[in-house]
Write a structure and sequence with these properties.
This protein is α/β, with parallel strands linked by helices and 319 residues long. 32% of the residues lie in helices and 25% in strands. It has eleven helices and 13 strands. The protein has helices at residues 53-60, 85-90, 107-117, 122-135, 151-162, 181-196, 208-214, 232-239, 252-255, 281-287, 303-311; strands at 13-24, 27-38, 42-46, 73-76, 92-95, 169-173, 200-204, 217-222, 225-230, 243-247, 266-270, 273-278, 296-300. The radius of gyration is 23 Å and the shape is globular.
């Protein structure tokens, strides 16, 4: 296996992506993406369905090949997934979008079978399995059949499976989709602990709160391109007004004619809800003086507001 030697590269980087493209027929799924991931951090890829997030992740761990272009490269711990996919997979753990556990095997057997792909000896594998089932609070399900597990248990088991080889990089593709808040918060706490133990995490998610809770840095994608990137709080401070007023009924805006100074507010109207954005809370408080409590919601702007500003509110074809 060969190690990529990139002139001027930073050896502290876990992932380095430069000018990466991916084309399927006439469709360009990824368009010239570049970014770096340092060690022991969590980087989140955000974007609407069809933005290219999963395609990009698959190229990083070698499941999909990038387009061959001059000056385009991907490096994972110094290895190029185009040539060293097996080496990268041996030091990474991957949690796919879909549950793909073997329903014919029980919990322990699923993990033991997976450990064999990494050449882990049975005694060491058994110790590792017991440890992972413990931290995922699945020890009492060791002999349970997969069909008897809840959705949250299956997801915890898939994450345990991704950790069987004690990876240096964990790749999570929408890890908590469809899970209840208790399970999500449980997994967030576990992932934070793992990051503190020097695990690097690359994450895609549609939950903005999840991204804010876990990620040291975010990359927002749209139509295969990188739109913005940075630390969550920095992105909010630099790219979105501090406060937002939601008008829940479209006719409410008619009541406010004469009370809105469009020079001091930004209006976003989509899908039946009007959003008024401003850095001044007092301006928005003046706007709502003529409204009933059930007609509006005044709050701080959040990552979802930034996401919608960066990618648009209109549904794309993939959604």
């Amino acid at each position: 296996m060969s190690v990529v030697n990139i002139t001027g590269s930073d050896e502290s980087l876990v992932i380095s992506v430069r000018d990466v493209h991916k084309t399927y027929g006439q469709v360009m799924a990824v368009r010239g993406i570049s970014f770096d991931v340092e060690g022991s951090v969590c980087v989140g890829l955000l974007g609407p369905n069809g933005a290219g997030k999963t395609t990009l992740m698959k190229m990083i761990y070698g499941k999909s090949l990038r387009d061959q272009r001059q000056d385009s490269h991907i490096s994972v711990f110094g290895y190029d997934p185009m040539y060293d996919a097996l080496k990268i997979k041996s030091i990474c753990g991957v949690v796919p979008q879909d549950d793909n556990l073997d329903v014919e095997l029980n919990v322990f057997e699923n993990l033991m079978t997976f450990s064999k792909f990494y050449g882990i000896k049975r005694r060491a594998a058994t110790e590792r399995i017991d440890y992972l089932l413990g931290i995922m609070e699945l020890s009492d399900k060791r002999e349970a059949k997969i069909k008897s597990l809840s959705g949250g248990m299956k997801r915890r088991l898939i994450i345990a499976r991704a950790l069987i080889n004690n990876p240096r990089l964990l790749i999570l593709d929408e890890p908590t989709t469809g899970l209840d808040p208790q399970v999500r918060h449980f997994l967030w706490n576990k992932l934070r602990q793992m990051k503190e133990e020097n695990l690097t995490i690359l994450l895609t998610t549609h939950y903005m709160e999840e991204a804010f809770q876990l990620c040291d840095r975010l990359i927002i994608m749209n139509d295969g391109e990188k739109v913005v990137q940075g630390a969550p709080n920095d992105l909010l401070r630099q790219n979105i007004e501090r406060f937002v007023l939601e008008l829940r009924q479209p006719q409410t805006i008619q009541k406010l004619k004469g009370h809105i100074d469009t020079q001091k507010l930004r209006m976003d109207n989509a899908h039946g809800t009007v959003h008024l954005y401003s850095d001044s809370l007092e301006i928005l408080q003046d706007v709502v003086k003529t409204l009933h409590n059930d007609e509006y919601h005044l709050r701080q702007a959040n990552l979802e507001d930034l996401f919608l500003k960066a990618t648009g509110r209109a549904l794309n074809e993939a959604q």
